[in-house]
């Protein structure tokens, strides 16, 4: 839901539990809940009453509770790496880049890219920062994919000296020790601020 | 204590600290005081000073405590060693463990726990200075901190106590009244849904006195609720101005 500031200004500031109307008047939309036929706000935000379509919604004023969901892009750090899958510590979800905790995700070799990949060692190494997309939330862990141009490693570190790697064509070079490694990088490698 | 002989309430109905029977202590509420927490609040209720931080929703640790169908709410009520006259051991006492549970249960009905399965939300309540009625002040502040964290809520929760001192039912006991008085009835209340989420009693009251205490405490809650709303609005009105300035630039 995107709104111009002028539209946001129209709404009154409402708090959780504030009464917005009854279901006979409005269709409850995002940010609201219904109890006994009465529509209440469930977040802090601006109440938007769409008199034309008779809808009432609350436009949130803070980021709200953010959890990874299927289809959302996340940012995480590689934890334990095995030859066919790696554990990812998800630190940022969508636009919220600093969660107060971490969520664990898993990136399997079959979800890395369209092409054949021999080993996870050619994709990422522990400590790397990656951007990935959530494809499933089943089995109590988030399954991730990097099969897209804008997904993959955004910051890679040398496995010998932990220096930030530089991208050269298909290989990654360590400016300090000259080590050459491979990564599945995102197109904007080393550019995004975290 | 030397005021044992002294009357807790005089003939005119004025209490030891100068309040009337149905008068609250001065209350100050602030929202968004901790930059590292997802939501936070600070309350000064009389001489009580309480800081609340909310973290989450985040992955539960240990993982086996998480529930596949809902979020888990965890509360930790803790009194600082310097919060009372005699140094209190920083280890959680029996009383603190119980209050943590009681506060958790009074906040749970206000949350949509089923919206965030397999996650946990932590509420840390730190009592910096205690002067009676800390559980009520904690609940009031914790509800503010939860709302500030942006988690969907059915309603804010507001809490207030009533009690009996020398055969008079009074509102909002402070430490001396709590210790020397006859009874204490803390009540947590959701004002818009008109629902009580916490009701305790210690001491003895007749059924009539009990009913009077409950209605007095809910009236006290209704007095606190506008202040709670005001505290949230102060923060979020401010945020609105900031976003407007940004868009204008």
Tell me the layout of helices and strands.
The complex is a heterodimer of chains A (194) and B (249).
Chain A: H1 5-10, E1 13-14, E2 19-22, E3 27-28, E4 32-35, E5 38-41, E6 45-50, E7 55-60, E8 73-81, E9 85-93, E10 103-108, E11 129-136, E12 142-145, E13 152-155, E14 166-168, E15 171-173, E16 180-181
Parallel strand pairs in A: 3-7, 10-12
Antiparallel strand pairs in A: 1-6, 2-5, 4-5, 6-7, 8-9, 8-11, 9-10, 11-12, 11-13, 14-15, 15-16
Chain B: E1 27-31, E2 39-45, E3 48-59, E4 72-79, H1 94-107, E5 119-129, H2 134-149, E6 158-165, E7 168-171, H3 175-180, E8 183-190, E9 195-199, E10 202-203, H4 207-248
Parallel strand pairs in B: 4-5
Antiparallel strand pairs in B: 1-2, 2-3, 3-5, 6-7, 6-8, 8-9, 8-10
Helix pairs in contact in B: 1-2
CATH class membership of chain B: Alpha Beta
- How many distinct beta strands of chain B? 10
- Total helical elements of chain A: 1
The number of strands of chain A is: 16
- Supply Rg of chain A: 22 Å
Average pLDDT value of chain B? Answer: 92
Provide the CATH architecture of chain B. Answer: 2-Layer Sandwich
The major sheet of chain A is characterized as:
5 strands, mixed, barrel
Q: Describe the main β-sheet of chain B briefly.
A: 5 strands, mixed
What are the low-pLDDT stretches of chain B, counting only 5+ consecutive residues below 50? Answer: none
What does it look like?
- The complex is a heterodimer of chains A (194) and B (249).
- Helices cover 3% and strands 39% of the residues of chain A.
- With 194 residues, chain A is mostly beta strands.
- Chain A has 2 domains: 5-60, RNA polymerase II/Efflux pump adaptor protein, barrel-sandwich hybrid domain (OB fold (Dihydrolipoamide Acetyltransferase, E2P)); 73-181, OB fold (Dihydrolipoamide Acetyltransferase, E2P) (Beta Barrel), CATH 2.40.50.140.
- In chain A, the strands form 4 sheets. Chain A has a 5-stranded mixed beta barrel.
- Chain A starts with a helix and ends in a 13-residue tail after the last strand.
- Chain B has one domain: 2-Layer Sandwich (Ribosomal Protein S5, domain 2).
- Helices cover 31% and strands 28% of the residues of chain B.
- In chain B, the strands form 2 sheets. In chain B, strands 1-2-3-5-4 form a 5-stranded mixed sheet. In chain B, strands 6, 7, 8, 9 and 10 form a 5-stranded antiparallel sheet that branches.
- In chain B, α1 packs across α2.
- The longest helix of chain B has 42 residues, at 207-248.
- Chain B is globular.
- Chains A and B meet through α1 of A and β3, α2 and α4 of B.
């Amino acid at each position: 839901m995107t709104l111009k500031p002028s539209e946001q200004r129209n709404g009154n500031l409402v708090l959780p539990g504030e009464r917005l109307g009854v279901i006979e008047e409005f269709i409850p939309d995002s940010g609201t809940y219904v109890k006994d036929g009465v529509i209440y706000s469930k977040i802090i935000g601006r109440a938007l009453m769409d008199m034309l379509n008779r809808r009432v919604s609350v436009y949130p004023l803070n980021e709200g509770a953010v959890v990874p969901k299927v289809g959302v892009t996340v940012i995480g750090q590689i934890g334990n790496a095995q030859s066919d899958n790696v554990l990812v510590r998800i630190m940022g979800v969508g636009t919220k880049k600093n969660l107060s905790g971490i969520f664990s995700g898993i990136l399997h070799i079959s979800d890395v890219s369209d092409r054949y990949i021999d080993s996870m060692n050619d994709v990422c190494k522990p400590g790397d920062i990656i951007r990935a997309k959530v494809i499933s939330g089943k089995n109590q862990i988030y399954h991730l994919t990097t099969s897209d141009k804008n997904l993959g490693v955004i910051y890679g570190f040398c496995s010998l000296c932990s220096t930030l790697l530089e991208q050269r064509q298909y290989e990654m070079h360590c400016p300090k020790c000259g080590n050459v490694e491979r990564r599945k990088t995102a197109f904007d490698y080393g550019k995004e601020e975290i | 204590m030397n005021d044992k002989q002294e009357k807790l309430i005089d003939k005119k109905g004025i209490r030891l600290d100068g309040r009337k029977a149905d008068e609250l202590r001065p209350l100050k509420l602030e929202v968004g005081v901790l930059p590292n927490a997802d939501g936070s609040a600070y309350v000064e209720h009389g001489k009580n000073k309480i800081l609340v931080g909310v973290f989450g929703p985040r992955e539960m640790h240990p993982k086996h405590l998480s529930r596949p169908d809902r979020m888990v709410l965890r509360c930790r009520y803790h009194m600082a060693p310097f919060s009372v006259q005699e140094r209190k051991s920083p280890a959680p006492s029996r009383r603190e463990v119980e209050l943590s549970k009681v506060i958790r249960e009074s906040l749970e009905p206000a949350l949509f726990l089923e919206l965030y399965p397999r996650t946990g939300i932590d509420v840390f309540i730190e009592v910096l200075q205690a002067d009676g009625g800390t559980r009520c002040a904690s609940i009031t502040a914790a509800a503010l901190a939860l709302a500030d964290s942006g988690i969907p809520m059915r309603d804010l929760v507001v809490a207030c106590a009533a009690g009996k001192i020398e055969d008079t039912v009074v509102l909002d006991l402070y430490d001396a009244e709590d210790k020397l008085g006859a009874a204490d009835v803390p009540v947590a209340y959701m004002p818009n849904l008109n629902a009580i989420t916490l009701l305790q009693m210690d001491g003895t009251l007749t059924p009539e006195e009990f009913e009077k205490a409950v209605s007095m405490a809910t009236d006290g809650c209704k007095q606190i609720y506008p202040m709670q709303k005001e505290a949230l609005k102060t923060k979020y009105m401010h945020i609105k101005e900031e976003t407007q300035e940004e868009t204008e630039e």
